[in-house]
Amino acid sequence: MDAIKVELQSLTASGQIFLVIDALDECPIGDQGESRAKVLALLTELSGWALPNLHVLVTSRKEQDNDKALASLLSFPSISIQTDQVQPDVRKYVKSQLANDLELKKWSSLIKEEIEKTLTEQAHGMFRWVVCQIDSLKRYIFPRDIRDVLKDLPKTLDDFYARSLRGIDESYRQMTLRALQWLTFSKRPLSIEELAEVVLIDPQATPSFDRTERLFHSHDILRVLSSLATVHTLKPWDFHADTRLENQEIRLAHFSVKEYLISKRPKPAELSQFNFTQISADHLIAQSSLLYMKSLAEMEEKCWSRGDLVEFPLLRYACRL
């Protein structure tokens, strides 16, 4: 935050300055990291500067603490975007995906019209919901299957995520649970290779880590996590002192996935195993990291060199935890 203030102060004589803070509601509430309280404190301080050339735009879902903190800072009435105002944009997005996606554009104009009509009418302004439905539709290869899905779409994001978890094979669910806990509360984003190691560490098993059981390919973890996670390719300027050897990292697909996983809202009974807290996830991450290092220490073929970071991709994270 201090760096942002210094940068803004250096620009005060440089003409008009526009600062956009998107999705303030997705900034965590708490004392760890750059919490929402720190962002709100920064906005309050910027308002006190009373600079005529500094313009700040904040977007957020309606939340009581945000509304209360920002009310006294507004120099322009807040704008509430209603569902009927968003619907034309949702339709444009669906049309664009159907016209440009490599797989979707191959479909017949008739099935595209049905998808556009159904998704636009049932989205209720939720872009994330539309993204999820389009991703799920890509799995089907027959028009009749797509029509069946369109007749029984999940009503909410919670319903969609519950359906996604139900679709995971029972034999993969414990592995998926470990992956989701790491993705939700790891200290930094993980590479795909790191997460592929994570799912192998089972604190209840003997041995707790067996590298002979590694995935055939680290990207196979995406087939299990499906719409719950997404891959980001890093730019050169994204790397830092703790950089991995890979240029891709895997994250939860959206903030709403984290909300669903840690929410106290009841989940279906068959998905109760996917209820976890930050405390339980932190415990798993710490325990798994120690077991991973212990496994390496007990291996005869270790060389205690940079080569170990290639052979054991999670080692750098585990040692710096």
What does this structure look like?
The chain has 321 residues and is mainly alpha-helical. 49% of the residues lie in helices and 6% in strands. It has 15 helices and four strands. The chain has helices at 2-10, 36-49, 64-71, 83-100, 109-122, 127-137, 143-151, 157-166, 173-185, 192-198, 221-225, 255-262, 278-297, 307-311, 315-320; strands at residues 17-21, 54-58, 229-233, 248-252. The chain has a two-stranded parallel ribbon with strand order 1-2. β1 (17-21), α2 (36-49) and β2 (54-58) form a beta-alpha-beta unit. α4 (83-100) runs antiparallel to α5 (109-122). It is globular, with a radius of gyration of 23 Å. The mean pLDDT is 88.
Count of discrete alpha- or pi-helical segments spanning 4 or more residues: 15
Q: Identify the strand order in the major beta sheet.
A: 1-2
Mean residue pLDDT: 88
**Structural class label:** mainly alpha
The residue fraction in helices comes out at: 40-55%
Query: How many whole angstroms does the radius of gyration measure?
Result: 23 Å
Total number of beta strands: 4
Oligomer class: single chain
Q: Sketch the major β-sheet.
A: 2 strands, parallel
Q: How big a fraction of the residues is strand?
A: 5-15%
Global outline: globular
Order of helices and strands: HEHEHHHHHHHHHEEHHHH
